[in-house]
Specification:
This protein has 333 residues and is an alpha/beta fold. The chain has one domain: TIM Barrel (Alpha-Beta Barrel), CATH 3.20.20. It contains 17 helices and 8 strands. Bound molecules: adenine and zinc ion.
Amino acid sequence: MRALIARMPKVELHLHIEGTLEPEQLFAFARRNGVVLSHPSVEALREAYRFHNLQSFLDLYYQGTAVLQTERDFYELTMAYLERVAAQNVVHTEIFFDPQSHTHRGIAMGTVVDGITRALKEGEQRLGISSKLILSFLRHLDEEDAFVTLRQAQPYLDRIAAVGLDSSEVGHPPSKFERVFAAARELGLPAVAHAGEEGPPEYIMEALERLQVMRIDHGVRVVECPGLVARLVEEAIPLTVCPLSNTRLRVFPDMKSHTLKQMMDYGLKVTINSDDPAYFGGYMTENFLAVQDAFGFDRQTLLTLGLNAVEASLLGPDEKARIAERMRAAVEQ
Ligand code: ADE
Ligand code: ZN
């Protein structure tokens, strides 16, 4: 099964590009850009990656973004991620970026988008990885700031496939962003949102009804509300679950306590993703291995997880069919 997980073509739907900043690269960018860091070494920084909840992680994650300053930084960050996951047989990836974490430091939207998308284009040509870029609004900021961000993104909409919502969840319900998501919809952008990671099931409901999202990021707290589970099953709403993220951020005490298997048994369209792999101890393969170790899934279940991601992606029907065929072939081999 471990060999199968390694060779299976994989689709990633929940990945924050800023969350792929490995400590070594963070220190290299800091040196290049003259940024003084609060941790003395790579080892000391890694040592600090012991989180007790989402906020304790976000505090370090936003600190880390300070080293990202030039188009070249964003290009190299994204290229390094693509090289790593190419080696794990990721064939398609949908990538969040948090523009406000950069524009608030005086970095132009164009610098960020140009660097990321230059790497994505090269990743497609040289590594054969297709991709979509998702602009994510920071929910701890107000809706007016999200509107400013959407306006700043307008010249780049040919390279942005959707909008998302992330950052500190509790106290910042999806309804806070209803108008800006409506404006994004007017621009033709589909929507996704983090909901039910630490926040209550009501936030999942709000994301569906008020933001009209096509999928839910995390959504693990859905199991607390049977009526909502039934609705997500009925409407086939995909959930981008991030197993190592959930255990590292103490949403669950350990992988065996994760509700992933229960969610699959309910018939929910669950997918496996890495969220912020540099901070949570693993990319796609490590996430699949962690759930495999905890639940001992059979081939068919692994294939279902993979195919769910293909189906839930922003790809067109032909591209979906092509990747699904490759996945089936790898599993039957
Ligand atoms: N930003 C980066 N990772 C996140 C997560 N897991 N939840 C909310 N916001 C995030
Ligand atoms: Zn996330």
